[in-house]
Design brief:
heterodimer, A: about 180 residues, mainly alpha, two-stranded parallel sheet, 2 strands, elongated, B: mainly alpha, 2 domains
C-alpha cells in the first residue's frame, strides 16, 4: 500500500505518457493520407496527380511535331534514343515562341545561341559542333559497359586520320550531328 | 589546374552538382553528439560511481537535455518544408534511415526528460510548496500535483534514476551510432560508406560532450567565483584524453584503410584531402584539434603539482580545441563527402553564405540555442551551484 503511495507520481507520469501516446496514435489516424501505404510508403494517389501535371520539359515528340526533317535523319539510327536536349538545350522557351509563331507569323523565333561549354547551362536553345558534347557520352572511362560504342579520342582520331585532331569540331569531319554513322 | 583530368568537364552528374547537405547537416551530428557525450559524463557518476564527477553529474544531464532539445533545429532549418517534418514519423517508411532516427531521438528525449525530472523532483516539490503565484503554479504542474516526498518515494526515485542512467548509455550509443550509420550506410559515397562510421561518430560525440561539460563547468565556476573541484577537473581531463585517443585512432585507422587499399576512389579522396579539405582536415582536425590536445591534456589530467588556475586553463584550452576538432570532423565528413563528383573525376564547390536559413549566422544562432536553454533551465531548476542537497528539500 505504501509503495503504491510512494510511487503515485510515477503512476501519474505513466498515465500522462500513455495518454500522450494514445493522443499521438489518434492524431496519426487523422494525419495519415487516405491512400498511404497501398503500394508502398507513399500516397498512391500521388502517382495520378504527378502524371496529370503538364510537363515542363518538351520531349523529343514535341520537337518532332515541327522538325520532321531531323526526325527522318535520326529515324532508325542508334542515336534515335539520344534526346534532342543533349545537344540543343531544354528549348522550353523555343517551343513556346515557335508555337506563337505558328499562329502568328509576325512573331520572330530567336535564333539558337552558341553553347557556353557548360553541361548545366541555362541557355535555352543552342547549336554546337563541340567534340565535348559527343565525348560526354562516348569517351572511354573506367566502368563503361563492354559493348557500348566508346572511343579513346586520341587513338580514334589518329586511326581514322582526322585532318585537324585538335579542333573542337573535329568529330564532324566524318560524323553528322543527327545521323552520326560515319 | 587546367588540363588535369580531375578538372576538365564533363564529370558532374546532375545530382552532385550542388552539395545539398549544408552546414546545418554539419551541426546536426555535432549537436546530437554533445547530447550523447554529456550524458556519458553523468553516467560515469551515476552508473560507474566515479565520485570525482559528482559536481558535474547533474549539470551534465541538464546540458545533455538542452542540447537534445535543439538537436533537430538544424534539420528543421534545412528542410524546405519544415511543416512536414513529422511526416517522417506519421507515415514512416520501413526502409528510411531517417524515420528510424525520429523514433530513437524521441525515445532518448523522453528518457532525458524523465531522468531530469526525477533528479530535481525534491527541489520541484519544495518549491511547489513554498512558492505562490505563477511560479508556484508552474512547480505544482511540474510536480504533477504530488506535493510530498516520503523516504520511500525518494528511494524509488533513486533506483529509477540509476536504472535510467544505465539504460541511457546504450540508448545514447544507439542515438549517436545511428547518426553515424546515416552516413556510413550510403554506399555511393566512398568517403562515407564504412561500417566504422558509427563508431567514429560515437567516439567523437563522447569527446565533444565531455569538452562541453568541461567548458560549461569552468565557466560557471568562474561566474560564481568558486574554484573548480581539482579532482573533478582531473577526472574530466582524463576522460577527455582517453576518448580523444579513441576517436583519433578510429579516424586515423579509417583513413589509413582507404589509403592503403588504394581502391578506385582513393585518387579522388587524396586530391580532396590535399586541396579542398587541406585546411579543415589537415590543419584543424588533425593538427590543432587532435595532436595539440593529445599532447597538452596529460598535464591537467595527471599532474598533481599544477596550480589550479593553470590546470583549468590547460583543460579549457584543450576542450576548446577539441570542440573545433569535432566540428571540423563533421564538416569534413558531411560537406567533404559532397565536394567530389560521384564520377570520381572532379570537384564541386560549397558556397558558404553569411545570411539565409542555412548561412553562418543561422548556424551560430543554432549553436548558441542549447546554451540559452541551459541558462533558462538554471533559472527553473537548482542545477547550479553544486552541493545543494535537494534530498532535504531545501534550496538555497
Amino acid at each position: 500500500m505504501s509503495t503504491l503511495r510512494d510511487s503515485r507520481h510515477l503512476w501519474l507520469l505513466a498515465g500522462l505518457l500513455g495518454a500522450a501516446a494514445l493522443g499521438m496514435m489518434l492524431l496519426r489516424t487523422v494525419l495519415m493520407p487516405a491512400t498511404y501505404g497501398i503500394q508502398g510508403p507513399y500516397r498512391a494517389e500521388a502517382l495520378a496527380e504527378i502524371a496529370a501535371q503538364p510537363s515542363l520539359f518538351p520531349a523529343d515528340a514535341t520537337c518532332h511535331q515541327c522538325h520532321e526533317k531531323v526526325r527522318h535523319e535520326r529515324d532508325g539510327t542508334l542515336h534515335e534514343a539520344v534526346r534532342c536536349a543533349h545537344c540543343h538545350g531544354l528549348a522550353v522557351d523555343h517551343v513556346a515562341k515557335a508555337r506563337l509563331a505558328a499562329a502568328d507569323p509576325s512573331v520572330p523565333i530567336p535564333p539558337a545561341a552558341e553553347w557556353d561549354g557548360n553541361f548545366l547551362t541555362r541557355i535555352d536553345l543552342y547549336l554546337t559542333k563541340d567534340r565535348s558534347t559527343c565525348l560526354s557520352c562516348h569517351e572511354q572511362v573506367v566502368g563503361m559497359p563492354a559493348d557500348f560504342k566508346k572511343i579513346d579520342p586520341a587513338v580514334h582520331l589518329e586511326e581514322q586520320g582526322a585532318s585537324e585532331p585538335t579542333s573542337r569540331e573535329t568529330c564532324f569531319e566524318c560524323h553528322g550531328g543527327h545521323d552520326t554513322a560515319p | 589546374m587546367d588540363g588535369h583530368p580531375l578538372h576538365t568537364a564533363p564529370f558532374i552528374f546532375p545530382n552532385d552538382a550542388h552539395p545539398a547537405w549544408s552546414i546545418m547537416i554539419v551541426l546536426y551530428p555535432y549537436i546530437t553528439g554533445m547530447v550523447a557525450g554529456a550524458f556519458v559524463v553523468s553516467s560515469m557518476y551515476h552508473v560507474f560511481h566515479r565520485e570525482a564527477l559528482k559536481p558535474v553529474a547533474k549539470l551534465a544531464v541538464v546540458t545533455s537535455l538542452c542540447f537534445c532539445a535543439c538537436a533537430t533545429l538544424p534539420l528543421l532549418l534545412h528542410l524546405h518544408q519544415p511543416q512536414r517534418a513529422l511526416n517522417v514519423m506519421v507515415t514512416p517508411s520501413p526502409s528510411s534511415a531517417m524515420a528510424g532516427f525520429g523514433f530513437i531521438y524521441s525515445g532518448y528525449m523522453l528518457l532525458l526528460l524523465v531522468d531530469v525530472w526525477l533528479m530535481f523532483r525534491p527541489a520541484i516539490v519544495a518549491r511547489a510548496r513554498s512558492l505562490t503565484g505563477r511560479w508556484g503554479q508552474l512547480y505544482r504542474v511540474l510536480a504533477l500535483g504530488v506535493l510530498d516526498i516520503s523516504p520511500g518515494a525518494a528511494a524509488i526515485d533513486q533506483r529509477l534514476i540509476s536504472a535510467l542512467s544505465v539504460l541511457g548509455i546504450p540508448v545514447a550509443c544507439v542515438l549517436h551510432g545511428y547518426v553515424g550509420f546515416l552516413f556510413g550506410a550510403i554506399k555511393a559515397n566512398p568517403w562515407w560508406s564504412t561500417s566504422l562510421m558509427p563508431v567514429i561518430f560515437l567516439s567523437s560525440a563522447i569527446v565533444s560532450g565531455i569538452a562541453v561539460v568541461i567548458l560549461v563547468y569552468l565557466f560557471l565556476c568562474r561566474w560564481s567565483g568558486i574554484e573548480a573541484e581539482p579532482e573533478c577537473m582531473r577526472a574530466l581531463s582524463r576522460l577527455l584524453w582517453m576518448f580523444l585517443i579513441l576517436a583519433v585512432a578510429f579516424e586515423g585507422v579509417e583513413l589509413l584503410h582507404i589509403a592503403y587499399e588504394q581502391e578506385a576512389e582513393w585518387h579522388v579522396i587524396r586530391e580532396l584531402l590535399g586541396s579542398k579539405l587541406r585546411f579543415s582536415y589537415g590543419i584543424v582536425q588533425i593538427l590543432i584539434g587532435s595532436l595539440i590536445p593529445l599532447l597538452i591534456l596529460p598535464l591537467p589530467a595527471f599532474s598533481h603539482r599544477l596550480a589550479a588556475r593553470c590546470r583549468d586553463s590547460w583543460s579549457g584550452v584543450a576542450a576548446v580545441l577539441v570542440l573545433f576538432q569535432v566540428l571540423a570532423m563533421r564538416w569534413n565528413v558531411v560537406v567533404g563527402g559532397q565536394l567530389f563528383s560521384k564520377s570520381f573525376r572532379g570537384f564541386v564547390d560549397y558556397p558558404l553564405t553569411w545570411w539565409g536559413r542555412e548561412g553562418l549566422i543561422a548556424a551560430a544562432v543554432v549553436l548558441a540555442m542549447p546554451l540559452v536553454l541551459l541558462f533558462g533551465a538554471m533559472k527553473i531548476l537548482p542545477v547550479w551551484p553544486p552541493g545543494i542537497d535537494d534530498h532535504e528539500g531545501t534550496i538555497q
